[in-house]
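Just curious: can you write a single protein's sequence together with how it folds?
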Amino acid sequence: MIDLLTILIFGGIAVFFGFKLFTVLGRHEGHMEAPSSDNVSPAGIGMPGSTSPLRPAFEGPAAAGLEAIAAADSRFDPNEFVVGAKRAYRMIVEAFAAGDRDALSDLLAPDVLKRYVSAIDARDKRGETVNSEIDRIKSADITEAEHHSGTARVKIRFEAEIATETRDETGKLVSGDLANLAKTVEYWTFQRKTTSSDPNWELSSVSVA
């Protein structure tokens, strides 16, 4: 007959593996969300019987909007969002320079995609190619956030150092220079339908400071 100690030992093992499975399956996914560690962030866990998920307190001018987004989507974590947004910034800048329309279609809202594709088409007609190199993203800060009619929007101020050059079909330099870094400050707004099962965010607006 199995004694009580053996039952407790095997019960503890079952609980351990059940928890590890939860942490793996419960990870954040999506283009605009950074992969989480083995320990699930408190921002994504709701305690049994509680009316709201545990999450860090939000501060700053966007705090109210971040609270509203987190209330609609318990997986939302501002810190992970910024990490993912920085990755998206690089991907979009590089895809636009390369004229990669397919990559852009997964990252941009329809209106923004239309403008980017039009610019790429015009560039292609002129026989021009663009090279862009991001030396570093100096800062990426959330400045505004809101949740309205089932849509979450987060605006981020990006400050980066980028070198860009444009050459014609003969290889002659038209503008810019990869040897010279330029400071850029832009405001990018990302949005996502919180009523959708799709966890991905898309770029919906770009403005220059």
Q: What stands out?
A: The longest helix spans residues 4-25. The beta strands are 129-148, 151-167, 173-176, 182-193, 202-208. Helices lie at 4-25, 63-72, 78-98, 101-105, 110-125.
